[in-house]
Design a protein that fits this description.
The complex is a heterodimer of chains A (about 200) and B (about 300). By secondary structure, chain A is an all-alpha fold. Helix content of chain A is about 70%, strand content about 0%. Chain A is globular and about 50 Å long. The C terminus of chain A is likely disordered. Chain B has about 300 residues and is an alpha+beta fold. In chain B, a hairpin with a 6-residue loop joins strand 4 and strand 5. In chain B, helix 1 packs across helix 2. The longest helix of chain B is centred in the middle third of the chain and has 78 residues. The radius of gyration of chain B is 50 Å and the shape is rod-shaped. The chains are: A mainly alpha (about 200), B alpha+beta (about 300).
């Protein structure tokens, strides 16, 4: 498939093409999602060197595992993000166990830049998520973000929040339910017919 | 477990908080296998959780070399390598419900080893790169620390130079004063007047030496009480039949000693009387205060 045609392919089509060994499809996915995935990895790892390293692993895994993607189970975006987050948290744990002492490599705060680096689609998605999170009660939002970005276990989150485990689980459930209701059909459906990611 | 109880597990599952082989994981997987509603719910919740990636702060794009490196490393893999892999270990339902592609059995073990070795080499080279970057950062940090130390040493040396140069200035001033005094005392036309304390300071005494030719003078006083705040002593040259001519003002040290250099005006050099009064600190044109020292009329 030509590069130009790639621009309008859905994530699902691209992942199927990757599964058939189409390198240009992988390149298109990279161009579409590298900044979002790198932002996620950086948020989890707090080190650009590690985040870029994991980003490379993630795309190699997308290449190797694309055949496992099944659109009946969820969005292609979800599949890739889940893979990226999982790789990042694995890396985070191995870094934490390997070197608590060598903090220097871990201390780079993620450099925040303006949303200008996003294209219109990503900027819109970002705004939808921001608006949804703003509507979720603070204590639920904290629990969700701790779980998602810090790679903590249920009991670690409870300890971090100073709340009983049961309370934390309830907050997770309420927060996730609310997030799903707020995001609803909005996510991944905003880019118009020709860019149905 | 009631159906409702799974709702909480679904939320925890979406956030990847269920342990891989825990009771909760097993219970949920068993339920998902037979409940369409919950399976749909699980999918929706995972989509929502994945959207949280957009809650991470935006960042600058990775270096273009990263894209080239990724594409180069996938190009080097053959098609047979790319397909047959273990399903992802995350996202329980995806894992358990995904069917492994049939080609898996066709893959030779050596292909698998080659792929793993390659992946390991990529990791190793990235590790080296990471190490290199870290080493470079440390080198820069060490350089900065050295610069800081050099700068601090430079600062200390500058301060030491300033201190020494002050001391040299002081010594030069002392030397100039001593040589002026010596010159004054050795001058052929040197005159000396002795001043005695008045009733204001009976123990006070002073000697005024001056060169009649140049007018250069030095007054040395002892046991003169320190002047009160805002006041100073002032020297006067008093010629017969004329108003006193003002000389310089001076202060004593804590022990009552004073040493003052002055130029005696030509008329003053033939003065009959030299006197010291207590005046406002800036000095005055005509005496206003009490007299503390006075020479006997010559």
């Amino acid at each position: 498939m030509a590069e130009a045609a790639r621009q309008t392919s859905s994530d699902t089509e691209l992942l199927h093409a990757v599964a058939r060994g189409d390198e240009s499809a992988l390149a298109a996915l990279y161009d579409r999602y590298n900044s979002i995935l790198l932002g996620l990895l950086l948020r989890i790892l707090h080190s650009r060197v590690e985040a870029e390293d994991v980003l490379q692993e993630v795309f190699l895994q997308i290449w190797q595992r694309a055949a496992n993607f099944d659109e009946a189970r969820g969005r292609g975006f979800t599949w890739m993000v889940t893979l990226a987050r999982s790789r990042a948290i694995d890396r985070l744990r191995s870094l934490q166990s390997r070197q608590r002492a060598d903090d220097t490599a871990m201390q780079n705060a993620p450099e925040a830049v303006s949303d200008a680096s996003d294209d219109a689609y990503h900027a819109e998605q970002r705004e939808i998520v921001r608006a949804a999170l703003a509507e979720i009660p603070e204590e639920q939002r904290r629990a969700l973000l701790l779980a998602y970005f810090e790679g903590l276990t249920q009991s670690e989150i409870a300890a971090r929040l100073g709340q009983p485990l049961g309370t934390v689980k309830t907050r997770m459930r309420s927060g996730m339910t609310k997030l799903r209701d707020l995001l609803g059909e909005k996510m991944g459906r905003q880019a118009g017919a020709n860019l149905n990611y | 477990m009631r159906h409702e109880d799974y709702k909480e597990l679904l939320a925890l599952d979406a956030l990847d908080l269920l342990e891989g082989d825990g009771d909760e994981r097993r219970a949920l997987d068993a339920h998902l296998a037979e409940c369409d509603d919950c399976r749909a719910e699980a999918s929706a919740l995972r989509d929502s959780a994945a959207s949280l990636a957009y809650a991470a702060p935006p960042t600058v794009a990775p270096a273009p070399e990263l894209r080239a490196r990724i594409l180069a490393s996938v190009k080097s893999q053959t098609r047979a390598d790319a397909r047959p892999l273990a399903p992802p270990t995350h996202g329980g339902a995806i894992t358990t419900l995904t069917t492994t592609p049939p080609e898996v059995s066709n893959v030779s073990t050596s292909d698998e080893f080659a792929r793993r070795r390659e992946a390991r080499e990529v990791r190793v080279s990235r590790r080296l790169l990471t190490f290199g970057t870290l080493a470079a950062s440390l080198a820069v940090a060490a350089l900065l620390v050295s610069l800081l130390l050099l700068w601090q040493r430079n600062e200390r040396q500058q301060a030491e130079i300033a201190r020494l140069s002050q001391a040299v200035n002081r010594t030069e001033r002392d030397l100039a004063r001593l040589s002026a005094e010596r010159e004054l005392l050795a001058a052929p036309a040197a005159q000396t007047a002795t001043l005695a304390g008045t009733k204001m300071a009976e123990r006070a005494r002073a000697r005024l030496t001056f060169d009649e030719r140049t007018g250069r003078a030095m007054l040395m006083a002892a046991d003169l009480p320190p002047a009160p705040a805002g006041k100073a002593y002032q020297l006067w040259f008093i010629a017969a039949g004329k108003p006193p001519m003002p000389g310089s003002v001076f202060q004593t040290d804590a022990s009552g000693h004073a040493e003052m250099h002055d130029i005696v005006p030509p008329e003053g050099r033939r003065a009959a009387i030299y006197a010291v009064t207590l005046e406002p600190a800036g000095g005055v044109a005509a005496p206003t205060g009490e007299m503390y020292l006075k020479s006997s009329a010559s």
